[in-house]
């Protein structure tokens, strides 16, 4: 076991006994990745009304309450457990704010052992295109973004989720396989296929702009 593993185990043990500083340090280790997940999966209608920092703070409080029941010897690694807690909080917020207007936010493909809002094609296209830097490019980029959204929507649902997890949430292949309950080989093959499709989408968008 490495010193990093020892450090994590020590922090986890301290956090499970109520050490607030240890819990905060554990959560901070994964805050950047969790924030990216929230940004990808937060319904665009809630942007400006719900802040990712508030989502993470509420999820942190939930995780602190639930931590004594978490077992490091279980089959869910700590990061994926935290991600699940954050995803459940995000789903609760969607239901609270959108109610019957909420689109299908509980696709079985989207989360390991529970509901989680899917990453929308709008959010993925925005990540792929980046921010508009000049007004003169705004119309062209908006048109390209719509083309990318259409292409992403046409992708196989699991392939798009694998792409989201690996390319945008930066999960490892092992983490992705566990989230989607796939074999490591299947998760890897789907990611390669989705990545090729994403590159094709971007090339088509660039050629049409040119």
Describe the structure.
With 210 residues, the protein is mostly helical. The protein has two domains: 3-106, Rna Polymerase Sigma Factor, Chain: A; 121-209, Arc Repressor Mutant, subunit A (Orthogonal Bundle). 68% of the residues lie in helices and 0% in strands. It is built from ten helices and no strands. The protein is globular, with a radius of gyration of 19 Å. Mean pLDDT is 81; it is low at 104-114 and 131-136.
Short description:
With 210 residues, this protein is mostly helical.
Radius of gyration equals: 19 Å
Number of discrete domains = 2
CATH homologous superfamily of the largest domain? Answer: RNA polymerase sigma factor, region 2, helix turn helix motif
The outline comes out as: globular
């Amino acid at each position: 076991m490495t010193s990093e593993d020892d450090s994590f185990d020590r922090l986890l043990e301290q956090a499970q006994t109520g050490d607030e500083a240890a819990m905060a340090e554990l959560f901070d280790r994964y805050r950047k990745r969790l924030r990216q997940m929230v940004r990808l999966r937060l319904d665009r209608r809630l942007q400006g009304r719900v802040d990712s920092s508030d989502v993470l703070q509420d999820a942190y409080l939930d995780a602190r309450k639930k931590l004594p029941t978490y077992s490091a010897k279980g089959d869910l690694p700590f990061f994926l457990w935290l991600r699940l807690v954050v995803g459940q909080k995000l789903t609760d917020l969607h239901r609270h704010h959108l109610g019957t207007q909420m689109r299908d936010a509980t696709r079985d493909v989207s989360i390991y052992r529970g509901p989680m809002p899917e990453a929308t094609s709008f959010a993925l296209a925005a990540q792929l295109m980046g921010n508009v830097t000049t007004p003169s490019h705004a119309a062209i980029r908006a048109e390209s973004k719509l083309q990318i959204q259409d292409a992403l929507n046409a992708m196989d649902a699991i392939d798009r989720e694998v792409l989201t997890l690996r390319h945008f949430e930066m999960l490892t292949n092992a983490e992705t396989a566990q989230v989607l309950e796939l074999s490591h080989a299947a998760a890897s093959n789907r990611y390669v296929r989705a990545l090729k499709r994403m590159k094709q989408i971007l090339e088509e968008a660039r050629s049409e702009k040119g």
